[in-house]
User: Which sequence fits this backbone?
C-alpha cells in the first residue's frame, strides 16, 4: 500500500510525465524515466507532508527517491 501511494505521489510530483503505473513497473531509476530534479523536490515535499518524515537530502537520501521498493521499505520501517 505504501509503494502504491508513493507511485501516485511520483505521478503528481512529475505532473504526469511519469505515471504511477510506470513508477510501479520501473526496473531503472525513476530519474532515468523522466523524474526531474523539480519533480524530486516536489516528491520530497509530498513524502514529508504525507508520512510526517524528513527526507535526507544527502546523496544516499536522494538515491532512495529513485527506487520505490527501497523508499517504501524505509518508510514502513519507521
Assistant:
Amino acid at each position: 500500500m505504501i509503494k502504491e501511494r508513493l507511485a501516485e505521489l511520483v505521478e503528481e510530483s512529475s505532473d504526469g510525465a511519469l505515471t504511477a503505473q510506470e513508477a510501479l513497473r520501473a526496473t531503472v531509476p525513476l530519474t532515468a524515466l523522466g523524474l526531474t530534479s523539480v519533480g524530486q523536490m516536489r516528491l520530497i515535499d509530498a513524502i514529508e507532508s504525507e508520512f510526517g518524515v524528513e527526507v535526507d537530502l544527502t546523496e544516499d537520501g536522494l538515491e532512495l527517491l529513485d527506487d520505490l521498493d527501497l523508499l517504501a521499505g524505509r518508510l514502513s520501517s519507521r
In short: The mean pLDDT is 93.
